[in-house]
Amino acid sequence: MTNKIEYKSGFLPLFKLRRTFYNPRAKFSHWWSPFHFPSRTKRVFIAIILDWILILLMFGLTQWFFVGPKPPKAYFSINDESLKHPLVDEIISADSATVINAVGPFVLLLVLEVLFFWDRWDVYHLATGHAQSIAMSLFFTSLFWITVGGHLGLRPTFLTKCDPDPTKIIPNITYYDNSICREDLSKIEYQGFPSGHASTAFAGWVFFTLYINGKAKPWNGGAHFWKVLILLLPLSFATWISLTRVIDFRHFPYQIIIGGMIGIMAALIAFRLNFVVNGWFVALGENNDHIPAHYHFLNEIEINRSLHGGENNV
Questions:
Q1: For the Phosphatidic acid phosphatase type 2/haloperoxidase domain, which residue ranges apply (predicted)?
Q2: What's the maximum distance between 2 C-alpha atoms anywhere in the chain?
């Protein structure tokens, strides 16, 4: 019995589907898609260029969101004690956070790559995955700044910096906007939701942890406790970086939590995209999650060709 089913649909679709696309008995029918463009075999360099165009585009849009569009108008109570925290020095500045969260884990991964795992496609997927993780976290963080920021983005020191003008206070009016402020506040004072420090910290260091988990194989029954501790250290470091923003009154806890969730999801997606996992986003480290996606792709093509003969649309 053959697994091939003739696909007969008349004029539509305009793009020809494989005969096995809707065949539930075809083992690899789930693998092929009409959206496989550009080809990772025939046009691999075009695919690589497209990857990095999208990464750079997200970084560019992030910068534009940061300096361009204004967040939604913020309304606040001048009696809100949570917005009257004192001004203290930053523990980790934005520039330092960029180095720590984006550059730091990437440099460490490159060192490990050179020492233990060197492979050109592993380096490519490592670099691309890390960049995608940081780019996605920054893009969606900055997108939230200008769409749902406003009063959600007010920082714990907002009223301290605002210094409300008492002559503008109206009896029986509870909420005001920034027109009551005597100080001209910068756009960044309304962009506290979600936390950029937290999103980039978890994007960078969770991707680092997933990569080490795949390469070190800590869950293979060898009771390698030291490997687990190594996996926990970057996660603890990302948590500490995030919590410093609460300590120095730059963010509220909910802003940190949402930022951290964005970073974790960005890292999971980027790793899953570049290192194929048997199962869901995270494997147990004993499967195939150490192998770059490029090699999986080539392997699937060969298997698919052997089963389906001349159908090589990839």
A1: 134-271
A2: 87
List, for residues 117-132, the tens digit of each pLDDT value: 889 999 999 999 999 9
Provide the residue range defining the domain that includes 235.
95-154+190-298
> Is 65 within 8 Å of 140 (Cβ atoms)?
no
Q: Among 274, 130, 276, 239, which residue's Cα sits nearest to residue 138? A: 130
Let me know if residue 23 belongs to a domain.
no
CA-wise closest residue to 274 among 261, 301, 292: 292
Q: Phi first, then psi: what are they for 279, rounded to 5°?
A: 115, -140
Question: Which residues does 162 contact at the CB level (< 8 Å), separation at least 6?
Answer: 178, 180, 181, 182, 183, 185
Q: What are phi and psi of 281, to 5 degrees?
A: -65, -35
DSSP designation for 118: -
Mention every residue, 6+ apart, whose C-beta is less than 8 A from residue 279: 287
In terms of C-beta density within 10 A (0-12 exposed, 13-18 middle, 19 or more buried), how is residue 223 classed?
A: exposed
Q: Is residue 276 part of a domain?
A: yes
Measured between alpha carbons, how far is 260 from 246 in angstroms, rounded to an integer?
A: 13
Tell me, yes or no, whether 206 lies in a domain. Answer: yes
Tokens describing residue 90: 């930053």
Please give the tally of structural domains in the chain: 1
The token duo for 195 is: 């936390």
Please indicate, yes or no, if residue 24 is contained in any of the structural domains.
Answer: no
Whole-number Å distance between alpha carbons of 144 and 147: 5
pLDDT, tens digit (0-9, with 9 covering 90-100), for 134-180: 999 999 999 999 998 888 899 999 999 999 999 898 988 889 998 89
Which two three-digit tokens encode residue 157? 């020191």
Q: Tell if the pTM clears 0.85, that is, is over it.
A: yes
Q: What angle, rounded to 10 degrees, do the helices at 120-147 and 44-67 form?
A: 30
Tokens at 101, concatenated: 């969260």
**Cα–Cα distance, 17 to 307 (Å, whole number):** 17
CA distance 153 to 79: 18
- The token duo for 265 is 């999801």
Backbone angles phi, psi at 76, to 5 degrees: -150, 160
